Amino acid sequence: MQKTAGIHHITAMVNDAQRNIDFYAGVLGLRLVKKTINFDRPEVYHLYFGNDTGQPGTVITFFPWAKQLKGRIGTGQVGVTSYVIPKGTAPFWEKRLRKFGVKFTSSLRFGEKYIKFNDPDGLQIELTERDEGPRNTWNFGGVQSENAIQGFGGAVLFSAQPHKTTDVLENVLGLECLGQENEFLRFNSEGILGNTIDIQLNPSVRGLMGAGTVHHIAWRAKDGEDQQRWKSLLLDNGYYPTEILDRNYFKALYFHEAGGILFEIATDPPGFTVDEPAHELGKKLMLPSWLESKREELEENLPQVEVRVLEGDN
Q1: Does 307 reside within a domain?
Q2: Contact partners, residue 86, CB within 8 Å, separation at least 6
Q3: Is the pLDDT assigned to residue 267 strictly greater than 80?
Q4: Which of 108, 187, 196, 226 is the most exposed place for a label (fewest CB within 10 A)?
Q5: What does pTM read for this prediction?
Q6: Domain contains 265
């Protein structure tokens, strides 16, 4: 049976690019591993944040566009993005969030404690301690490697039809259902990052796409051949996947599952060092070959942004 290792990446929409960088790099300590543009809307950045190398299972990406309307988190979306932090680091992260004025709450789910908060655009984020997963060797500002976010723990899906989303997770993507606790169903994949998916059974409102919402969640395919098998499997199960698209750092196909959430299947290779060396990741605007001739025009129109250590951080 086809089985995905788990989440490849999650992509969301926000308003302000510099504010986005200041939060995910400055506060959360993630590395900006790629600064490029939305291939379909080249006047908009596409920013990628992950661990030191931007490996699959660690990367959240953003389309920051000041003019887009505010969205509403609800059914048909990823409701919550979960990150894994090393065991024993919850006090560090609670102290850090307080330092930067980020309000948070705590909750328990399936025996795990979650630190829950919103990013500046309203996206719902949570941190949980786990033993598993490789350490992130990236150091930035006040976040050193021993405390650094390792990658995704998983996500909470807000499905309009939870039983149908359950079906695609189990019978198409190959995840295992671990059981139900209160209003959540939990699923697990074979990977060590991005491997825990919860479906909330009773989300309250219909989601509206816009700033502060997740656009799609991508699942891992080992390579192009594996992705072709996924496409055949989707067609056999009555889904209508897109053509396979070249996103430079991976190849992608998309489909809407019956609960309304946009799913992507993305290849692990070639990765983010295909067009710049590992030590230079995220420093320069990278463009696909077909837009390189427009570099000067694009750089002039895109807002000026930088990765910076926030005031008072060390």
Answers
A1: no
A2: 129, 135, 146, 147, 148, 150
A3: yes
A4: 108
A5: 0.97
A6: yes
